[in-house]
Amino acid sequence: MMKTDSPEPILRVAPGPSDINSNGHIFGGWVLSQMDIAAGIVAGRTAQGPTATVAIEAMKFIAPILLQDIISVYAQVERKGRTSMGIRIEVVADRARGAEQVKVTEGLFTFVALDENHRPRPIDWAD
Length: 127
Fold this sequence. Notes:
Organism: Sphingomonas changbaiensis NBRC 104936
Structural class: alpha+beta
Strand order of the largest sheet: 1-3-4-5-2
Pfam family, one: 4HBT
GO molecular function, one term: long-chain fatty acyl-CoA hydrolase activity
Number of helices: 1
Keywords: Hydrolase
Low-confidence stretches: none
Helix content: 10-25%
CATH superfamily: Hotdog Thioesterase
Number of strands: 5
Protein name: HotDog ACOT-type domain-containing protein
CATH topology: Thiol Ester Dehydrase, Chain A
């Protein structure tokens, strides 16, 4: 599991029956949207304002998410630019009523900070 400043996940979600595909696994698009939500939370907090997803890089599906899983989405800033940041996302499934944890996917999401005209703006990196 990724080492973050906070060991707490940014997001915890239980998929529902409508999120399952014909193989009995959760749709990849569903987990991708959960990852984007978590990354957006971190990006908005970091940029102290609105941000937009501009790229998803190095996306890797490692193991399927099952209907009974509860997923935890971890996120941290991995790359800092003038107007953008790379957010590393890892998703871990709690399986078998919490008896097992399985890393199911990971990716790197790039966000750009936006001004009031929805144009890129510089990020004030306080650290």
